[in-house]
């Protein structure tokens, strides 16, 4: 039985794995990418929608075929599930999406350590606990530094109260150290933020204190007018209210009243005649006082 016709028909359904290019295609298998600089056929691109799509689809298939051929030329590892290829290193240098991060300013301790030549040595995370006979974390959850009852015996100083709880004092000292470290972290964060803005950390803290001082003046009825002035306290600049003199010429008062009547009669809204918000507030206060 001759099956050559059936085999030819079956093979005609599949494209050839051999792809020819006038200019060799460059590959970067580390990025799974190919770079084809061959010119496109303009006549096929302008032949119509269907022919253009078929031409672009064929170009994409050939490019993928070239990439797969290069992948199978690499060292492979056979597993029960499939075959894996070992990719080489990346050769194409891609530009960064974002600019390089700015170097963080050094903290006070880092500046001091650099000045004195102190080098930090990394400690192991686990330490051996002789009491439990096992390794435990140095800090954090179930750490060796979290046992409040260690040591089991504490010597009471001679000048201390005989009824003093030395374990409570150790807990208070630890709490004070944690709060101190938190304040230092906050200070370092504020100084880093000031340096990033191009400001002097000392000047920024001074300005913040001055703003807080000015805001605190509003807590008194006189808005800080009769409060004791501090040394170097900035002068608060505010709006000055202007009052008409109690005794004025009759002509000036008459002209002001006529001006208001004329604007009300003409319906001129270019200038505010009545402060509606102030009038509503006065009306509400009057109603509240009657109750």
Runs with pLDDT <50, length 5+?
A: none
Distance between the terminal alpha carbons, to the nearest Å?
115 Å
Mean pLDDT, all residues: 81
Largest sheet: 2 strands, antiparallel
- The total count of helices amounts to 8
| Range of helix content | 40-55%
Strand fraction: 5-15%
Tell me the Rg in angstroms. 42 Å
The number of E-state strands comes to: 6
Q: Give the helices and strands as they follow along the chain.
A: HEEHHEEHEEHHHH
Broad shape: flat
Decide which structural class fits the backbone.
Answer: mainly alpha
Report strand order across the widest sheet: 1-2
Summarize the entry for a quick read.
43% of the residues lie in helices and 7% in strands.
Describe the overall structure.
The strands form three sheets. This protein has a two-stranded antiparallel ribbon. Strands 3-4 form a two-stranded antiparallel sheet. It is flat. The chain has eight helices and six strands. With 291 residues, it is mainly alpha-helical. The mean pLDDT is 81.
Layout of strands and helices, then pairs:
Elements: H1 4-11, E1 26-28, E2 33-35, H2 42-45, H3 49-72, E3 76-78, E4 83-85, H4 108-116, E5 126-129, E6 134-137, H5 166-196, H6 201-216, H7 250-266, H8 276-290
Antiparallel strand pairs: 1-2, 3-4, 5-6
Features:
291 residues; 8 helices; mainly alpha; flat
